[in-house]
Structures are given as structure tokens and as C-alpha cells.
Amino acid sequence: MKKNLASRKLSFIFKFTLCFVLGTAAFLLTGRSIEALAAQQVSGEEDQELYEDEYGGIHTANGFVYYLHKDLYVSTYSVRYEGTAESIVIPDRFKGLEVKSLFFGAFSDAPNLKSVTLPESMSEIDDGAFMDCKNLEEILVDEKNLSYTVQEGVLYELGDSGAKRRIVFCPLKNIKAFAAPESVEWIDSYAFWGCKELQSVYIPASVQKIGSAFQFAGLQNVYYGSGSDELEDTKEYYDFSKTVEKAHLHFNFNPEDYQSSLLSDQTAEISGYWGTDSELSLPAGLGNTIVSSIGTEAFSGCRSVVHADIPDSVVRIGDRAFEGCSALERIVVPAGVTFVGADAFNGCFSLREIYYAGSEAQWNRLNVQLTDEVKIIYNCNPHELFPGHFSESETRIMYYTGDREDIVIPSWLDGRQMTAIGDGYTRLFADASPKRIEILEGITQIDRIAFSGCKSVQEIRLPDTCIEIGEEAFASCEGLEKLTLSPNLEKMGEKSFFQCKSLSGEISFPEKLTYIPISAFEDCEKLNGVTLPENLIEINSYAFSGCKSLTSVSLPKSLNYMGISVFWGCSSLKDVYYSGTGKEWKNFTLSGSFNKTGNDCLLNAGFHYTEEDLGVPYGSFTVTFNAWGTADIPPQTILQFGHVKKPADPVRPGYIFIGWYYGEELWDFEFDRIRGDMTLQAKWTYEEEIRQNGKGEYIDAEGFVLIPLGKEFIVNGGAPAYSSNITYNWQIDKPTLMQMGRNGDQSIPVKGLAEGQCTLTCTVRSEHYRVPPFGTEPILYDVDTSNYPYKYRIVPLIKSLRMSEKSITMKPGAYHFLTVAAAPSNSGYARVLSGLTFVSSDPSVAEVSKDGILTARKNGTVTVTAFTENGMDGITGRDSCTVTVTDSVSDPSAPDSGNGETDKNPGTAPPASGSGNWNTDKDSPDSGPGKDGAEEKPGGGTKEIPVKKITLSEKQIYMVKGKSIRVGAYVSPANATDELKWSTSNKKIAVVKNGKITGKKTGKVSVTVRAGKKKASLNVVVVPKAKKAAKVTLKKKSSMKVKSSLLLKASVSPKNATDTLTWSSSNKKIAKVDKFGRVTALKKGKATIRVKTSSGKKASCRISVIR
After folding, report:
1. What confidence tier does 563 reach under pLDDT thresholds 50, 70, 90?
2. What distance in Å separates the CA atoms of residue 317 and residue 878, rounded to the nearest whole number?
3. Whose CA, among 269, 369, 409, 737, lies 20 to 30 Å from 837?
């Protein structure tokens, strides 16, 4: 028994040990199998909980994280995965509750994930749940799940009817074409995340939300089933437009218009088309298949197609593919096409252009049969350029994605006409390095910074249709060597070609350009020549600054403004060709609209004017100086266009010398060049420096305003803005000189008591308050104290005058300084403030200037009166003297006066008042100097002075039969003694007498005026009836210096109009205008000069008079 019992125990121990060993081995083997399985697939079934995070997420051993959702009736779990498995199966339940939803970014922490299986219970997936699933290849759905399905690898959410209503995610990274089902209403954000080979997507009109579905996808073409307005109405459209800004959008696309077949390489061939579109963008994909071929006769007989765009995916065009497309004008052919069948474009009678993306050599290898009328535009790939997606009618080219050296930019993209390049914020070629760029006809605008910074480009050709170039459009294109501008260019922006350092050769600007903006060609260091258009009005500051290789410039006479430093640093500038006369250029440079600052290189260059300006043969000329007897200055002999050497300043007691004048224009010895015999005359002003400010007040050299002694006036103190509780306190530094009224107000009455200078100061204290966020009482947060000084010079007005001479005898041609004694003050301040002036009872006998220079004209006797225009209490100064002009004076250099000034160097008298006037339609006695339009010949034994040049006011006139018109003649020098003799080539058509032309019968004649050996002519056309002017124009604005003159030219159209002109000034105290359009600047300020034709047409010019 004991033996048997022992045997049984041994047997039990053996069996137990064997079972333990086998069990342990089995357990170890099973564990290894589970680990191996986990590396491939992880399930949430019987998962072990690890911990709960601060957000309530329960983390498990298999990498799942569950979040409990409780509501009134049922609780469920959301899940996310953060493990390392390549394949996972999401469990149907966790802890007895359904797993129903996926979070946004549910798998963003699972980089190894390739496959996901969704359970039957899954019914809610957040938008963007599969974001950042870089390696995900497939999504599977439990067949019992009623909310989601997978079709051709794409995850959809189902609607109540079971139709696919939402695209959740496409894990197919190699997909090239995709067509959303017609039932889809929603495409998730990141739905095609990372589909970088995607070329074509069809979106039906049923879609209501797209958003950033195609972010990080390489999408090239979007075909939408409706119009742009409907697409813009979709939710999150802005996000969508940003993610596809470098894709082509095609609207109103209907896939049912196309018939296709599947080729052996699993691509599609278009075999038929039933649509009626005129602008046809062929699809790059049909269904989920890429299109690679256009089949035989696919579009044969499609007479509606005008423009056709073949996508880059196509490599083959079959026989007779577009045969009979009689309306087809333009077609885009990609460079990837390797075969074009026979008669592919046969019967395309309207075809004129083919945009071909390849080279000429590539095209020739295709052996395409075309008529001679068809133009092949090589290197033109519209698919590399993208328009804006703001609307279906958007016409701006916004982006370029190619890498070509030769780029041709078309004016047709996506079936619509493009008109502009850029949007003012985008650099098209920031990521490209083109060398040559040609822009085709149709583009009208190059927007701001469009080509800016494209350093590689060497040549740019703009189309004839381009009318505008924006700011910095080509700035810093440092490699640009050759530029072709549009002949129709009208506008350029600032810095449009700034720092194009390689731009060389000569640039001729188009005629329609009227304005060169700031820094337009600044630092174009290799630019050699510039020819500006005849209609140019303004050249702004720095326009050609730094163009150090510039050797020649052609400037138009239409120019009326030049900014500072336009030609600064143009050290090589040698020749300036000006289309006007030298006098016109001089008038421009002195007009105030020409800034000399920084333009030394221009002014020091050699100037070439029109032949009309020369007037006399080349040679040397004599310059004389009229110092009015104050100095004996010898004449100078100067070569034509040479510089006059500045003589010493002549001295006139009690006055300050202000310069030498040629007529009314100050002579610039550094700039002005001689063009004939001439006389320069000295001019002075009062010894005290006096000027006018913007208010018209007179100011001394220290800035003190001149005010009359004894006159009361109101001073207004300063008032700070946005303040309250303002107090004013007035103080006077010299109470003995000025009396103040009541203190404390913003305005105060003051009165000068004695002669001298004083300062009135207004101290303004103001308090600033602010209202706190809570409460109603304002809080004082700042106190400001400001001082406003008012400086005055008190001047006694002149009450009495006494002229030094009561009787003066002079010979014609002599001159004399008149002197007066004034009381109670004889200072320049008193003379200016009192308005001291001189007048002659008959200027034709003896003329007197406002500052008392008397000039004898012809025999006779006059009364010269000195008087003041301004006085106190009606008291003004006045005195007179008698002036006799006679040939019997023994010494023509001195007046017959015992106490007068002596004229030691008698020069020729200045031109008579009104000399050099121009044409008028009335026979007016003051229409010209003397009875024949020239200055009258001085009497008695004076030296004969020949006429050197005659200028007529008109070159051609139209007049009505039976009417008369007067023409002005201007002689040089103005004091020439030769008589003017008028004649006509046919007295039966028109007669002339003393410049007055009368039409006898219709026809053409030449009217000539002669003086000595000189002559000038004009053409006269006599017409049977009047022709009204349709338009009259003047230049818009001009600047003048005080005492200068300017002849305004009115342009009347049509040119054969017979209207007469009437001139007027809005402020005759600032600038006056005579009946011929000659403007004289009187004092600082602004005035408007108006001209009106007899038929009622008007024009005006704004005159700014400066010191």
C-alpha cells in the first residue's frame, strides 16, 4: 500500500511539473505572439487602464485615451490614439459605454499609424480629426456602421438617406484626380492633407463648406460646378481661397459634358464633348482618373469654342481632335504633348494664336499642320501663372510657380482676359530666376512691386496695351539691361525702375506720358540717354539721380516743373537738347517751378535749343551795362551761348543793389548764356530789407511786422486744440512803444505809441481732462503752458513830401533819379508802408518807375507826381515837378536842374510801356508801342540802332472775310531805330497797315514785316465764315517772381477756329494780365488768370507769385 501510495505521489509530482513547464512555455510563447501582433495591430478590447490625466482622459496600455461625455439620457466616450502601432482597431465600447466620437487631431501623436478601423458605434468625427496623419494609408469602417463609409479609399459621412454628404479624409497620398459625388455638402478641413500629387479636383455645386480642405496638397486645378458667386457663398471661403491661391479655378464645370474611356495605363482619354462653352478649360481629371489624351475627333465640329486650354496632364492630341472648330481663336498646348495627330486643327479658320509652353525646336518636332495666319508663341505656359480668386471676373495675374529663364506672360488665363499683373502686395517672381520676360498684348497695368527684386531678369518687353506702371514695379531689378516701354504708357509710379543698375542704352519715353515721378530711374548707373516726350509736364525729385553714365537728355518745352536733384550725380551729362527756345528755357528756370538744388549737372551741360532761338548767325556779341549813371562799366564781347562776366555792383545812395536785369528778368551770371547783343540794367531796392509774408504783411529783416504809428488793430492769440479751461495773459516788453487793451481775452486791441521795435507775448494756459472708465467726473491729467510771441516794428506814416527838383529838362533817351524828402520819416520802412510811388501825366513823353527812375521818351512836357497811397486820418503826402523833354539840351547826359543827380553814363532808355505786345482783334491805340507796333524812334541826333531780330506774335492765323485783326511785332533790341514796314503777298486777299490785317476775299497770303535787313512773316488764311472754337487750353499752373512777366499761350482747337480771346485776372493786385495774355507779377500771392473765347470756351492758369 505504502509503495503504491509513493508511486502515485511521484506520478502526481511528475505530471504537475510537466504541466507547469508546458504551461510556462505556452505562456511565454503566447506573450511573444501578442507582442508581435501589437506591433502590427492594436485593439482596445480588454485594454488595461494606466492613469487619468488632469483633463479626465483615461490612458490605457494600448495607447488609447478615452474621454467621458455625459448627458441627460446617455453617456459615451470620445477617443484619441497616441501609441506607436501601425494599425489600430478602435473598440466599440469602453467600460461598458459606446465609443462614439473622434477628437480634432485624434491621431496627431501617432506618427507610425498606417491603418485605422472605425467601429460600428462611431458616429461623430471632428473636422480635422485626421490632421497630421503623414503615413496613414487606409481607413476601414465596420460594415454595420450606419454613419460612415469608405469608397475608393476616401472616408465619407453619410446623410439620413444614406447618401454621401461629407468628405472626412482621403489617406491616398498618390491620388492625382478626384471628383466629389454630387451629394456631398461638406468637405472637412485637411481632408486632402498631404496629397501632393493631386492635380485635379471636381467640386459639385452641392458643396456648402470647403475651408482649408486642400491645405498642404499640390492641387493645380479646381473644377467647380457653379459660378464664382456661389463658391464665395460657401462657408470658410477665405480659407479655401488661400489654400488654392496657386491653383486654377474653373467655374460652371459639368463633367457630364465629356465622354471618356480608360486607357491601358489607367489614365483617361477624352473621346467626346457635348457642351456649348466658348471659354473651354479641358479637365485634367475625369472622375478619379487623370486625363492624358484627347481622342480622335473628340471636339470635332464644336463651333462654340473660342478659347481652349489643354491641361498639363495631356501628352497626346489625336487625329482631327479640333477639326471644324471654326470659332476657335486661341488654344493652350502644354510642353508635355509628344504627339499631335493629322488634321488636329483642320478647319479652325479663326485660329490666330497658340500658347505653347515648349521651345520652337520642340514644336517643330510635332509637325503640326497650320495655316500661315496662326502665330505660335513659344515659352508661354499660362498654367504657371495664376489669377486672383476674388471673383469670376478677376483680371489680375497674382502668382508665378515656374522656373523658366524665358517667360512669356499671356493676357488670357483660365478662359478670361487678364488686364493687370500683381495686386500691389505680391512679388510674382520672388521664387524664380527668369532672364527674359515678354508680356503679351492685352495687359494694361503693371501693379506695385510686381517684378520688384527680380535680380536675374535681363530683358523686359512691355506690350503696346500697357498704360500704367505702379510704384516700385521693377525696383531693384539689378540685372535688367534692356527695357522696351509701351508707346501708349500714360502713368508711372514712384521708384518704378529704382536701382536697375544694369539698365543701359537710351530710353525714349512715350508721347502720352506727362509725369515722371519721384526716383523713377534713380541709381540706374549705366543708363546712357533719355528722350522725354513733348507732352511732358513734370519731372519730380530724384527722377534720374545717380545715373552717372547719362550723357544726353532731351527735354520738351512743355515742361513746367522740375523737382530737386532730378539729375544729381549725373557726372557724365554733356548735352541737353531742349525743344523750345533759349528764352523759353530761361523763363522756365526762373519761374519758381524749376528747382536748381541738386541739378548742377544739368545746368552745367551744353544746351542745344531750336533754330528759332538762334535768330542770328553764330559769332561774338556785345553786352552793355546800364547802371543809370551810378557807374561807368565797360561793355563785354562774348561768344554766342557764352557766359557774361559779372561786373561790380553799382551803388545808389539809400538803396540796396538787387541785380542786373534783362528786361524784367534777373540775369543769372552762372547759368544764363548770351544769344545776341544785349543791355543789362541795374536795379535797386530800399536800403532796409523788407519782404511780405503769406498774410500780405510787410516784415523787416528780423521778422518784425511793420505797423503804422497811432493805428489801433486786433491781435488774436493762439488756441490749443482738445483742451479746456483756457486762460490768456498778454505782456508787452516795451510799454512806452505799444499800448494794450483789456487783458485776459484771446483777442486784444493794441496801438503803436512811438517808433521802434517791441514784442507782444501771449501766454496760454490750458487744462486737459479725461473721463475714467468708471465714473462721470473728468480727471485733470495734464496742464499745458505755451507762449506765442508777436513782433512789431512801429513806423510813422509819411504825412508830407517835397521833391528835390521842381523843374527838370532832359533829352530823349536820357534818364534821371528823382529824390524826395519825406516827413515825419524818410526811412524805407515808412516809404513802403505809406505806399510811396511816382506817376507821369504822359508816359509816352517821360516815363517814371515806382522807385523814381525817370526816362525821357520824346519831346514834350509832363508833370511827375510823388504821392503816398496809405495815410492816417486821410492825410497823405504829395508833391510834383515839371519835366520837359527836348532835343535842344546841350548835354544829353544831364537834366536841366541845379540840384538833380547827374547821369554820367547815359544808356538807352528802357522799352516804352506796352512794347512787345502781341496780337488783338481790335484796333487799339495801345496795342503796341508807337503807331507801328515798335518802339518809337528817339528824336534828334541819336545813334542809329539797327534791328537784329523781329518776332511776330503769331505764325499763322485764320480770319473771317471782311474782318480785321492786329498782329504784334517785337523787335530786338527794343530801342532799335529802324522803322517797321508791312506788306502782303496778295492785296486782293488781304491788306495790312501798321500790323492791322484786313481780309478782302477768301484765300491764303503771306504777311511780312521788315526793319532794316531783318524780316519776319506769317501765314494768313481768310475764310468765308466764322468757325467756333471747341476748346481752349492753358497750362494749369505757373510760378513767377515779383516784377517778372510771362506770356501765356492759349491753345485753341480746332486750329482753324476764328475766335478772339479775352483775358482777365482774379486779383489784379497780385498779377495783372493785358489783352494779349502777358502776365505781370506785382506782389507775393496767388491769382488765377482766365482766358475766354468769343464762343464762350474758358481756361485758366493758377499763378503763384514769389519773392
Report:
1. very high
2. 103
3. 737
Q: Which amino acid is at 53?
A: D
CA 1055 to CA 1035: how far, in whole Å? 17
How far does Cα 321 stand from its chain's mean position?
48
Residue 70, SS3 per DSSP: strand
With beta carbons less than 8 A apart as the criterion, state whether 422 and 394 touch: no
What residues contact 661, with CB distance under 8 A and at least 6 apart? 667, 680, 681, 682, 683
What distance in Å separates the CA atoms of residue 867 and residue 869, rounded to the nearest whole number? Answer: 7
Could you say which DSSP state residue 762 is in? E
Q: Which three cell numbers stand for residue 927?
A: 496795342
CB burial of residue 327 (10 Å; 0-12, 13-18, 19+): middle
* Cβ within 8 Å of residue 488, ≥6 positions away: 464, 465, 466, 467, 510, 512
Start-to-end CA span in the chain (Å):
147
- In three-state secondary structure terms, 296 is coil
- For 981, the grid coordinates are 514796314
> Which residue from 544, 486, 534 is spatially nearest to 514, judged by alpha carbons?
534
Q: What grid cell was written down for 591? A: 519761374
pLDDT for position 723: 58
Kindly provide the residue ranges of all beta strands, DSSP E only, lying in 200-284, ordered along the sequence. 200-203, 221-224, 248-250, 258-262, 268-273, 279-281
pTM: 0.54
Q: How far apart are CA 172 and CA 52, in angstroms?
A: 35
Query: Pseudo-torsion of CA 356, 358, 360, 363, nearest 10°?
Result: -70
Beta bridge partners of 293: 269, 316
| Cβ pair 203, 178 in contact under 8 A | no
In this predicted structure, what is the pLDDT of residue 1059?
84
Contact 158/165 with Cβ under 8 angstroms? yes
Residue 506: strand, helix, or coil: strand
- Side-chain-side CA neighbours of 901 within 13 Å: the count stands at 21
Beta carbons of 1018 and 1085 less than 8 angstroms apart:
no
Question: What are 123-164's pLDDT values in tens digits?
Answer: 999 998 998 888 999 999 999 999 999 999 999 999 989 999
The answer to whether the Cα torsion of 364, 366, 368, 374 is positive or negative is: negative
**Distance between CA atoms of residues 1021 and 888, nearest Å:** 49
Single-letter code of the amino acid located at 1092: K
CB atoms within 10 A of CB 843: 15
- Edge-first strand order for the sheet with 738-740 is 712-716, 747-752, 738-740
Instruction: Give me the sign of the Cα torsion angle 858, 861, 863, 864.
Output: positive
Q: Which three cell numbers stand for residue 276?
A: 456649348
Taking each continuous run of H as one helix and of E as one strand, the counts in the chain are 8, 91
Mean pLDDT, the chain, as a whole number? 83
Question: 138-141, long-range: CB within 8 Å, 24+ apart, which pairs?
Answer: 138/114, 138/171, 139/115, 139/169, 139/171, 140/115, 140/116, 141/117
d(CA 857, CA 936): 8
Nearest CA-CA partner of 473 in 447, 455, 454: 447
Write out pLDDT tens, residues 57-74: 999 999 999 999 887 778
What single-letter amino acid sits at 398?
M
The rounded distance, in Å, linking the Cα atoms of 378 and 1066 is 62
Question: Residues, the chain, total?
Answer: 1107
Residues 6+ away with beta carbon under 8 Å from 891: none
Residue 957, CA distances (Å) to 185, 646, 916, 1051, 1052 in order? 77, 42, 19, 12, 11
Separation of CA 454 from chain center:
21
User: Which triple of cell numbers denotes residue 308?
Assistant: 481652349
1046 Cβ contact list (under 8 Å, min separation 6): 587, 591, 1038, 1040, 1078, 1079, 1081, 1103
Beta-strand relationship, 42-43 and 87-89: parallel
481-540: pLDDT as tens digits: 999 999 999 999 999 999 999 999 999 899 999 999 999 999 999 999 999 998 999 999
DSSP one-letter code for 970: E
